[in-house]
Amino acid sequence: MKSPLKLASWLVAAGRPEGPGAPLNTPLVPASNFARGGERTYARSDGTPTWEALETVVGGLEGGEAVAFASGMAAAAAVFDLLPVGAQVVLPQDCYQGVVALAEAGAARGRWRVARVPLEDTAAWERACAEADLLWLESPSNPLLRLADLAAICAAPRKPEGILVVDNTFATPLNQRPLEMGASLSVHSATKLIGGHSDLLAGVAVAREAALAQALRKARELAGAVPGALEAFLAVRGIRTLALRLERAQENAQVLASRLAQHPRVARVHYPGLPSHPQHALARRSLKGFGTIISFELEGGADAADALCARVRLIRHATSLGGVESSLERRSALPGQAHLPPSLVRLSVGIEDVEDLWADLEAALG
Ligand SMILES: *Cc1c(COP(=O)(O)O)cnc(C)c1O
User: Where on the chain is N6-(pyridoxal phosphate)lysine found, per UniProt (predicted)?
Assistant: First the structure.
């Protein structure tokens, strides 16, 4: 499915019912089953109009065939489920902890083998492409905002049947379109920027090839990893404003990242939009925008970071990211994150007035 419109128009216009008298918005259809004789019988196997609207919008943005899931992790689990026993899986060293935990749990049961490669090591990824059954890339990465040279890695020859996934949650299809570069799948936690309001859990996997989309639809049906009707409805409602939200939050993030980098209590800022980011040149070349997530390290270690998290007022001390409201947390306080710098704070920048956000951060930094 290719969008004939500019992406910012497609995400407003796509997936709406057509015809005289049709409602402009796709209705929330809370149905498990449908009367015989039509195109669907049972929602878990055949879908609902509400999830299909979400699939239409996201599929067009990514330029592929989308399959909606109950969460980003449900989408990831469906991808791993496609692997043959004994498969070789390659993950980045910096990667969303849930995906790492999923991969390690399967490896511990002997289901597959896992290797970890730094995102920056393009040659190692290119070599891995020739051997791996699943290459899982995340760029920019969570939470260190590292980048992979996706254009180079996606173009490297792959094992037949090898699947290359890009977790595109941080960039969104408005900043980066992995399928165009040659990725097999672009995967989203729609819980984050696509939904945009911290009011739902959903995931989407978008495939370049129809056969892979079909395999994922089957995996979803068998695992029952289907999105809820309300969640799909809210995700469609949320994605309508993605272009505006992203633009505003990104502008805010650039300002906050620059100011944080100059603050005496801040030891280091990780943001692809800063010239000090080690991969800033790659970011300029490969991303349309630098995203809404910043991470930074404080002078004074974990205690200083905990104090900051406790003192912010407008910015909420909470996990997750991608909502209209700004939030932050100290990442190494979470299970499975002990490898991160102890004072690393991940800040999800929202759409508030940037001066209010800065005043809050400055006061909390003390
Ligand atoms: C949150 C997140 C996920 C998991 O998504 P859920 O919707 O929470 O299941 C996957 N990848 C990234 C980069 C995330 O931030």
Answer: 192
**Nearest CA to 286 among 171, 193, 192, 184?**
171
Distance CA 280, CA 28 (A): 42
Other Cβ atoms less than 10 A from the Cβ of 354: the count is 19
- Tokens at 305, concatenated: 């970071």
Instruction: Determine the pLDDT at residue 2.
Output: 60
Q: pLDDT digit string (tens) for 75-104? A: 999 999 999 999 999 999 999 999 999 999
Cβ of 323 below 6 Å from ligand 1: no
Mutation pick for ligand 1 pocket among 147, 169, 172 (CB with most ligand atoms within 8 Å)? 169
Compute the Cα dihedral for 288, 25, 326, 342 and give only its sign: negative
Classify 7-239 by CATH class: alpha beta
Q: Is the CB of 142 under 6 A from ligand 1?
A: yes
To test the pocket of ligand 1, the residue of 102, 141, 191 to mutate (highest count of ligand atoms within 8 Å of its CB) is 191
Beta bridge partners of residue 65, listed in sequence order: 207
Burial class (CB in 10 A: 0-12, 13-18, 19+), 302: middle
- Strands 203-207 and 185-189, bridge-based pairing: antiparallel
Q: What is the 247 CA–ligand 1 centroid distance (Å)?
A: 21
For the full predicted model, state whether its pTM sits above 0.90. Answer: yes
* Residue whose token pair is 């910012």: 8
- 120 touches 138 (CB < 8 A): no
Is the CATH number 3.40.1110.10 carried by domain 243-365?
Answer: no
User: What residue ranges do the domains of the chain occupy?
Assistant: 7-239, 243-365
> How far is Cα 187 from Cα 194, in angstroms, rounded to an integer?
12
Residue 71 identity: S
Nearest protein CA to atom 1 of ligand 1, as residue: 189
The SS3 assignment for 23 reads: coil
How far apart are alpha carbons 259 and 201 in whole angstroms?
Answer: 33
- CA geometry: angle at 220 spanning 238 and 172, to 5°? 35
Q: Is 71 in the pocket of ligand 1 (CB under 6 A)?
A: yes
Q: What is the pLDDT of residue 336?
A: 82
